[in-house]
Amino acid sequence: MLKRLAKKVAVAALVFTALAAGLVAVLGYGAFQMLGWILSESSDLADGAEGFSGFDDGPSLLSFFGVFIAPSLFIGAAVLLTLGVRGVRRRARRAQNRRYDAAAQAEAWRRLYQRRDELLVKWSRYETDVSLMIDYPVMTDYSDPVIRDVIVAMQGIRAAEAEALDLGRGQVEASTLRRAVDRFEVAFVTAEKYARRCGQSKLSDAERSKLATARQALNIILDGAATPSEVEAAYRSLRGSLRGIIDLPDQAVAGLEAHTRQSLGVHPHGAHQHRRVSAERAA
Q1: How many of the other CB atoms lie within 10 Å of CB of 197?
Q2: Cβ(131)–Cβ(218) under 8 Å?
Q3: 277 partner at 20 to 30 Å CA-CA among 39, 88, 123, 255?
Q4: What is the pLDDT of residue 268?
């Protein structure tokens, strides 16, 4: 700001100096001509000449006015033209900077949403992957304070996203969402370390035994080499072992059923076999 103001003051001083120099030159030349004429008239009167001789001798005042003032006017016009060109370039530069800022802001939002999505995918694995749910059951224990912090942080992300939709995707909203994503990441990493440290230690011996049975049944389902009867028996054993310990979400159930149908060689449109598996689930 001060640098720009100093440039404007310097340009104004240059223009003023040029005009003042031209004006002083014109006035000085006029005074010199007037003095010369007075001396000439005095000399003529002393020699006995009569009348007023006028200003016919020498170049006219107007011609010298043009000679002296033209450079000043040229300098002023050049300075004004330079200022105009700089103004146009400055406006073009500002418009280009606005485009760059808009593109950079859009890229920042894209990376922010990408980071959020990656974290949410990592979290969703503990809610949909039965294997992870068996190994780290505390991640689905929403009564645990550590896990509850993750849920609260996730709600903070949704609130920040809603605010961005209402107010626009500006820098303030981006900062708000970034802080929300940061809090979620810290809460998730803390919960993940906590779950891996706890493992199944918070469960009773009977519950850990059931989870061991569930793990064996899941391995049979995912192995792909078991017979259909073994897969069906493993599915029943898995669901029975998890009952009362881990409440499988709908997505986890859907994924487990998809693996079971695949092991049985049943396509998604195989209604008869699907009903058979569903019947086994209900049993």
Answers
A1: 10
A2: yes
A3: 123
A4: 47
Instruction: Count CB-CB contacts under 10 A for residue 86.
Output: 12
User: pTM score, two decimals?
Assistant: 0.61
Other residues' Cβ atoms within 10 Å of the Cβ of residue 252: 20
Task: Provide the pLDDT confidence category of residue 83 given band limits of 50, 70 and 90.
Answer: confident
How far does Cα 147 stand from its chain's mean position?
Answer: 29
- Please identify which residue in the block is written with the tokens 């409440």: 247
CA 98 to chain CA mean position, Å: 14
Phi-psi region of 200 (alpha: psi -120 to 50; beta: other; left: phi over 0): alpha
Contact between residue 114 and residue 108 where contact means Cβ atoms under 8 Å apart: no
Q: Would residue 181 be called left, alpha or beta, if left means φ above 0 and alpha means ψ between -120 and 50 degrees?
A: alpha
Alpha helices in the chain (DSSP H): 2-46, 61-128, 130-135, 145-167, 171-198, 205-223, 228-242, 250-264, 271-282
3-state secondary structure of 91: helix
- pLDDT value at position 190? 96
Tell which residue, 178, 185, 187, has the closest CA to residue 113: 178
CB distance 169 to 109 below 8 Å? yes
